[in-house]
Amino acid sequence: MPLAASALDLSDANSTLADVFEWSTDDNEGLTSFRSLNIPVGGRAESLGSACTALCDDISFFDYNPAASSVLPQTEIAVFHNAWIADSAMETISATSRDGNLGYGAQLKCFYVPFSEYNLFGERVAGSYYTETSATINASYNFLAGYDFKGLAVGSNLRFSWRGMPDYTDNQTDEIISGSGLEQSALAVMADVGVLLRFNFLKNFADRDPNLSLGLALNNAGVSVTGFGSALALDDPLPTRLSAALAYRIFAPVLFTAEFRKPLNLMDFSSSGAISIASGMEITVTRFFNFDMGFLVQGGNPRISMGSGFQIKAFQMNVNYTFDLTSSQNPVNHISLSAKIKLGDKGRSKLREQVDAYYINGLRLYAEGDLDGAIVQWDLAIALDKRFDPAIDAKVAAIRFQNAKQKIMDMQKLDISISGKDSK
User: Fold this and answer.
1) What is the pTM of this model?
2) Which of 1, 156, 308, 374 could form a Cys-Cys staple with 362, CB 3.0–4.6 A?
3) Across residues 330-336, what is the average pLDDT?
């Protein structure tokens, strides 16, 4: 096939794809500052199309739902690398832990792009990096968490971001003007808030974790200022967004996620962006290997991603490949990586095993007819976990049975007493 014909076919295919997603084009796309806040840190979250506001079962929660730190099973430390486009990249390090129902963590990430300046003769006169660096601290709490009802998790992030613009040169002398970049740099202060609700729904497999999660989050709500070194002024609006999502484990090895996002321009609501849609699916192949795929449509720009994760003891690695700008004649492909270490659960699993042991001992004693002994075992379980519903329900049932038994015995004694009097 001639080269011209091949190019024509590719152009037609891309034009058709662009027509398919024409409904999602957005005239208000790209009007905000600190655009790096929309770039995924990479790894598993990006492989799932970044539809993670309801999932949030690992350390990727910082950029999606701050409530998740209070329900994560283990303490985690992770590093992420996302090789973005045009030699730009995102580097991230995160850490999170929890004590009981209180979760907390911190994240530091930096987006950077090489910056080169040339004079009128095409000579390179300056070279540095444009950067956007964000530091985030997190706190969350899971209210009313128990065995049947997993609780309502509520959390918040406080984030500080700095846009670093490199100094530029004087057009006449080619000398770098000290502090010139500072006037175009900016500082942003923002907050995230989120809620997470988890429960079982049409569950057809045995597992202690709930199979359905619902998440709602408001991200990047705040302001930024620029003009350091001269007169401070408000910068462009931040990429604030409101997200509503669900994560549903259809079968034990199959997880599906879906998310709707509405960008919000806090300076001018009429200029807010259009709703975007993201979805993902994870298939667990073995206990230590899974495969992920995802799809995101935002601003007329479909993004297809896929990846896999594998775990060796406490170490987990995720690799993601993303095919971006698929409605363009020049699609962009990039790869991101994540590596995390699980540092244990601070004894929560051992505590749960002890609670289960007391509960099972109680069931055994109950079956043997020793109700008092069973209640003692269930009291021990409840002392360790005040919201362990199986032991609470079993104790209530045993006490009711004891009361009913005592009433029957009392009635029998009364009948005997009456019969004795009648015989006299």
Assistant:
1) 0.85
2) 374
3) 76
